[in-house]
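Q: Convert this sequence to C-alpha cells.
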Amino acid sequence: MSQEKRTIIFFENVFAVVSYGVIYIALLLEIIYHISDMPWAAMLSIGLLFSIYYLFILILLRKKLDIDGRIQVGLIYLFLILIAFNSSLAASEVVTVVLRKQLTFGFYTIHLLQWIPFVYILWNAAVMKDFYKTKTSYLAISVSLVIGISYGFYNTYILSSSTDISSIYKIKEHFTILYLPIIWTVLASIFIYVSLKKNIPEYSRIGFILIGIMVLKLYSYDVWQMDNISRITAFIILGVILLLSSFTFQRLKNIIKNMVDKKEEEKKN
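A:
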C-alpha cells in the first residue's frame, strides 16, 4: 500500500470517528436535557445505556457503514469498558438511590437491558475483523463478563434483601463472603471448559487466575471473619483445593499438549 493511500485511509477514519462522535454527543445531550430533573445516578445509568446501544448499532452496521477494521476493534473495546462501568459503578449508584426511595426497583431493571447487546457481542466477537489477534481481547471479554455477572447478582441481591440503606453493609458482607466465591468458581469452570472445548489456552489461564484471586481473597480476608473451628476447616479445604488444582492443571496441560501434537500430525499427513 502506497503512502498516499495510507494517508487517505487515515483521514477517512478520522472523519468517520469525528462524525459518529458528533452525532453521539448531540443525541446524548438531548437525552440528558429531557431527564435533567432525575437523580444523578439515573442520568448516569441512562447515559451509559444509550452509549452502549449506540456502539452496538455501529458494530451491527459496521459493513454497511464501511467502518475500518481497527475502528471496529476499538468500538468493541469501548463497548466492553462501558459494560463493566455500567454494571459496577452506575448500577451500584442506582441501588443506593432506590434504597433511599428516590427511584423505584423498576428503574434498576432498566440497566439489565445492557445484556441484550452484550450477549450478542460475546457470541459474535469472533467474526469481528482482527479482534482476536491479541491476547488482550480474551482478557477484555473475560473481565467484562466477570464484572457484569458478579455485580449483576451483587446489586440484585442487595435490593432484594434490603428495605433501607441502614442494613446494606451487613448484606454486602454476607454476599461477598458467601455467594461471590461460588459465582467466581462457576465462571472459572466455564472458562476452563470453553478453553478445552475450543482449544483456547487463554481462557484456561483466566479461569485459574480467577480461582487464585478467589482463594487469595478467601484466606486473606474472609477467613478472619470466621470463628476458630471454621478457620481450621477452611485451611483444610485450602489444602484439598491446592492438591486438586495441581492435578487438574497437569491434566489440562497434557490435554492441550495432545491436541497440539494431534493437529501437527494431521498437518504433516
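The chain has a mean pLDDT of 83.
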